[in-house]
Amino acid sequence: MDNDIFQGYKGDALELLKKYKVRVWGTVVVDTTRGTFEGTVLPRAENDDDKHIVVKIITGYNIGIDTRTITSMKETGYKKANYKIPEKEFPTTPGLPYVKLFGTGGTIASRLDYRTGAVIPAFSPGELYGAVPELADICNLDTEKIFAVFSENMGPKQYMALAVAIGKEIEKGIDGIVIGHGTDTLHHTGAALTFMCQNLPVPVVLVGSQRSSDRPSSDAALNLMHAMKAAGQSDIAEVMVCMFGPTSDEYGLLHKGTRVRKMHSSYRSTFRTIGDTPLARINRKEILPIKKSYNKRRNDKDVKILPYFSDKVTMLYYYPGMAADTLDALVEKGYKGIIFVGTGLGHVNKELYPAIERAQAKGVHMYMTLQTLWGYVHMFVYDTGRDMMAKGIIPAGNMLPEVAWVKLSWILGQTEDPEEVKKMMLTPINDEITTREPYNGYLVYQGGVPEVEDFIKDVHK
Amino acid sequence: MSFNSILNYENSKKKVGYVTRNEATQNTYDSIGFMSGLEVHQQLLTDQKLFCHCPAGIYNKSDDYDAELIRHMRPTLSELGEYDGTALMEFRTRKEIIYRINNENACTYEVDDTPPFPINMDALEKALEISLLSKLNVVGEVHITRKQYLDGSIPTGFQRTAILGVEGELELPNKKIRLIQLSIEEDSCREISDIGHVRLYKTDRLGMPLIETVTYPDFVNPDEVKEGCDYIRFLNRSTGKVRTGMGAGRQDVNVSCRGGNRVEIKGVAHTKWIPELTHNEAFRQWALLQIKDLLLTRIHNPANWKVNHVSIKNLTKDIPNISDKENVIAINLPQFEGALSYFTQPGQMFADELSTRLKVIACIEKPNMTHSEDISSDIDDKLFSKIKDILNSNKGDAQVVLWGNEEDMKTAIETIEERCKLALEGVPEETRKSFEDGTTIFERVLPGADRMYPDTDSAPIPLEDKYIETLRKRIPQDVIDNYKQLKKWDIPEETYTYIFSKNLFPLIERIINELGVQPSYVGTFIGHEVKFATGHYIGPENFTFERVYSLFKYLSKENIKHELAERMLPDMILHPKMDFDSILTSINFKRYSKEEILSKIPLLFDKFAEGKKEISLPKQKNWVMGNLRKIAMGNINLTELSKEI
Questions:
Q1: FRET pair for B381, CA 20 to 30 Å: which of A42, A281, A288, B299?
Q2: Which residues 82-111 of B have a C-beta within 8 angstroms of A?
């Protein structure tokens, strides 16, 4: 009961509220050594100190009052906020595709949480329709909250639960699936679902937002519209990530779950296809294919759901002078698979060799990927590379490090036979390794160069 | 024309009781219940912006940019779970907002691609000093709040702002003004253009630290509002920690009349415009209340009042200026005859309220409509009769004809109906854009407290007593005390505005106290001579007032009378690097002893008398004084000389 009345307050502040019988959401007059303040007491974020009471004053602003300056307080009324996105029934429109939206948390639809001060998901077809009514022109919508976790807390359990849920929806005959997801590990989930849901007959679209939907300039609404359109109307039956193309509110990009990566901590246009081009561009009117070949939408329900995952796979990001004991420690702790993220063409230093040999002797599955992200592992070029291959490290082509980690985890959840593991690792399921890198698969423009500056000025960034 | 609009306009103007400001007295304002309050914005003088590390105060031309990007704004819920009225209106306009970025003065924070960095402590400190000076109750913890703006003036869609103090008081010479609050906030973008559905902004000013001082609506006449505004600006400047120059200080002025509503006149750049603007706004509201009364005598059920409309595209094919529009719509406004041409402001009638809303809400550029009481309509009476037939209009109805793109027509019709319905209620709460001639036009619906939201990207900042006390020691003396001191010094009052607006009180005080110069002379020298000379002579660089101190110091040291300062001033401005010795040479100053000068008096008296039959003594004295003035200046006190003569 205390928690409800004094939401988030502790220590001195809590004592003071109790002493003067003032509740959260109570309207108060507070006398202090700095003068009198009036307003409504708001909940306090859990991690903030116990020396201040937060009050919303009549003009709508929030202020904090130092408990050490308070001489008296009086509750004069009570006005609890009723925070609710206006809910309207999501209309069913004959002729429009049926899309299922799975909620996993993240910022795609969110509201304020006083406990942490952060935003928490608010989510139902009605709420979504209230916030983004345009969705009703794109598809018929059903939603299901599978779990509510922040992106960084998404992990193997969630991947498997999602895969199973996708299988069930396809069995029921859904036209497309959208998964709302925090953006930090969107690409890990994209890879995991690609491996776990094979031979998809319908699109599975992962979407998030870089700016929470509690702000007017959020990318959430447009991303959601794009994702719904991709799921319901596109003929690309793959696991895709759908996020902003440029930072401008212009179009989204559909990236393959196995080739996409978050490349900026806060830009809207943070997701990029690495080593290839995206599948397609999408705006509110149309879907414009970029790649010519992809898995097409089908009418059957012949999806293969393979929800496996081993938690005994780790990654080792190499740095110059890395000591052998770092690798030994991982092996001793029982890790059965290690993804090396090496320098250049896929290298680590000689000091690691003895540890690599010990790991090989214990049957650890070792694969090499690149810190450069772009390009292929080429271990034949230098002696070091050939040495390492001799010691059991297998080059993983142009597989992205995170994708290699997901894939090895998924494989080791099924078999530990070295040959079988190697065959599965190196046989691409959906372009996690490609046979060729197109000239435009690597583009990191350098600011300041005249032609780049011209380009940036001409097109909307 | 069957209805005489011109006569109606003139008659309604009389009925409103509109008088010019010169004709108005306090009784005039009391009779309409004039009420006004201020929101004074002032940029702080800092090196960097408020929430990122871009330099502050580096401006660029509109076409000097490195990149452009586009955003659309969507309304979101406030913390208390409500949608804001303005938010919804702005959303209806479907604006495409383009931002121009110059790498020199904007980074990824400005365009909302990077979360805020911790608040600029230098800015916070300066703002707190002004809060203390404004005698506000300073908060215990600063909470950054997001204030929604859907017009696009801030790319995030909200302004980061925080209250530093509430409930302050300022003492003016004849009145006390109560303050509601003072906040620190980031400045917004500068608008380049706003045409149709595209609004263009530049981001140079965006994010610069700004404070806003908000007063209670305690002002009872237009001149008082200006006086209060000047005082707040002088107070801000007295700290020496704020920016000056074009756009560094701007104010929003809230006005209402009895029975009216709060209307906010936005972004008034000069305080001298305030009296005319507030005067006209109070009368505009008075007029709107009369329009309401007029309409309610005819419309008995306002809730059921509605318009009907029809496309008359085919009837207007041959009318220039209209024929090229995608669609033309005629709307019938039941029982609105006489309302459309009712006086609202000098040169404006009620129909102008409709037209401006069409521009802002439906994004249709002006001219966007005409009406049955339009004094110079493109549509003649004959066509209007036809339109009335098609609309099934009754006697006493009025008609609006509007045009534009098909996609904007729905919003346009809704906008007309909405504004007319508001006329039945009285004065709508709104923000208005001001013009130099003292009139205003609709800008947007007045936002409420519902647009506030805590900034989840920023942690609260505690303000301990110890810190506040350190700041309190730094703040300058109150402007009102300076005012009283100037009076005590016998410095004429007409110089005060100049002295306070340039924050010259501390300089005057030092010259008087440290150099012993006669107070009223320093005051008039700065308030008259310096003011005139800096406006009259243009030097290679800005005049630094500190030079005046050096000048008096030099004159005292050289034992030259202070009056010579007047003659030296032009050269000081024109040649800021020239030393004082050289200036003396340049103005041909020669040293004479008192005796030398006085010894010339008898000779000059004789000279004047030469060949004259009758001699007027005052004339003679003046002539002698005139002849001696030049050589006397600096060498002997002129009053003393005049006595000797």
A1: B299
A2: 83, 87, 98, 108, 111
